[in-house]
Amino acid sequence: EIVLTQSPATLSLSPGERATLSCRASQSIGSYLAWYQQKPGQAPRLLIYDASNGATGISARFSGSGSGTDFTLTISSLEPEDFAVYYCQHRSDWPLTFGGGTKVEIK
Amino acid sequence: EVQLVESGGGLVQPGGSLRLSCAASGFTFSSYAMNWVRQSPGKGLEWVSTIINTRTYYADSVKGRFTISRDNSKNILYLQMNTLRAEDTAVYYCSRPMTTVVASLFDCWGQGTLVTVSS
User: Do B44 and A87 make contact, defined as CB atoms within 8 angstroms?
Assistant: First the structure.
């Protein structure tokens, strides 16, 4: 089973600041990594797939990068609606797994 | 508009069974793989199961206890859950992938149904 480790667990930032979230895989997963955003009481929303492709309707301030074992989600300038929990997920092989999440909170 | 509506959750005793349903609309259900993902209270996301045509895949934590199935004539996805444990307590989400080609990108989600396993 591929383990995804996200860091940091919590990121405290102010609106307008840049957010950098990390996801590390226990073995190479190529570019088969996705990022999701989840707000309290809501289902997750797909943001980025295959490491760097934006899902439909996602703002350009969200970008993804990386390959192999190290991946990054960047939010270029935080808007109030971006404060949420972010999860990474691989689709390299079965079983699929998610990372533990990074909470982006208002400083 | 794509809609996924889960039902069937509730309170069940340890060792009991429950069947979840996910009613799909707004797309050609039979063309897509379908998934179940769960989230324990206050915890992260956990993939549970995927069905691709007749092929099925399960997380190790539910293998042998849960069965995913679908009725394409009714546009319904199911999750039969047997021998339930306290650690199966979670909100269960039904999810459709982004395209008909890739099964494991969770693009459309239902609102979830809560399963509580407790005596």
Answer: yes
Location of structure tokens 């950098």: A20
B98 at interface of A, judged by CB pairs closer than 8 A: yes
Phi and psi at B52, nearest 5°, equal: -125, 105
Q: Smallest Cα–Cα separation from A95: which of B60, B27, B44?
A: B60
Helix (H, G, I), strand (E, B), or coil: what is residue B82? coil
Identify residues of A whose CB sits under 8 angstroms from chain B CBs: 1, 34, 36, 38, 43-46, 49, 55-56, 87, 89, 91, 94-101
Amino acid identity of residue B57, one-letter, is: Y
**Distance of alpha carbon B105 from its chain centroid, rounded?**
14
Rg of chain B taking only CA atoms, in angstroms? 13
Q: How distant is the Cα of B27 from the closest Cα of chain A, in angstroms?
A: 16
Residue A13, token pair as written in the block:
């930032």
pLDDT digit string, tens, across residues A12-62? 999 999 999 999 999 999 999 999 999 999 999 999 999 999 999 999 999
Question: Over the stretch B78-106, which tens digit does the pLDDT of each residue have?
Answer: 999 999 999 999 999 999 999 999 988 99
CB-side exposure of A51: number of CA atoms within 13 Å?
Answer: 15
